[in-house]
Design goal:
about 160 residues, mainly beta
Length: about 160
């Protein structure tokens, strides 16, 4: 009986510590990301040129109005909401914590974390048992003007 109890306790501990990792996602040449979802938080790592803005949207397959997006530009990191195709995403409540924003040899490494559920109705709810998440991404000149991006900037 003691062995079964110990085995059960170990399985519960393993389950509680489970996390989902995307591995490195190659968005486009020189721009990658990674998403790690544990039972409490989601951590996103973006790596790209330090002279471009970087953006990733979650749970959408276009700039769908109401969709959730995070960006980094010359003005810093921002939690945003899509307002529709061709419309600049607007800032919403900042739920993310920037833990790393390093630049070395022209490459920015940005690591941000937030709880699985944000505070805005547009915030994507991450699921620690998810098998896929629809993503959109883009990068462009390092200003607050988020310009046109490629049609192949999405995946599931």
């Amino acid at each position: 009986m003691k062995k079964i109890t110990l085995l059960f306790a170990m399985l519960v501990m393993i389950t509680l510590n489970a996390q989902v990792e995307s591995g490195v996602i190659n968005f486009t040449s020189g721009y990658t990301g990674e998403i790690v979802i544990d039972p409490i938080n989601v951590t996103v790592t973006l790596i790209g040129p330090d002279n471009l803005w970087l953006g990733v949207g979650f749970g959408v397959d276009s700039m769908t109005a109401g969709g959730d997006v995070i960006t980094h530009s010359s003005t810093g990191f921002s939690d945003r909401q899509f307002l529709g195709i061709g419309v600049m995403p607007t800032p919403d409540t900042q739920d993310w914590t920037v833990s790393t924003n390093d630049v070395s040899a022209g490459v920015r490494t940005l690591v941000v974390t937030r709880p699985l559920t944000g505070t805005d109705s547009s915030d994507f709810v991450f699921d620690s048992s998810a098998t896929n998440i629809s993503l959109v991404w883009a990068h462009g000149n390092n200003t607050e003007v988020f310009g046109q991006h490629a049609a192949n900037s999405r995946d599931a």
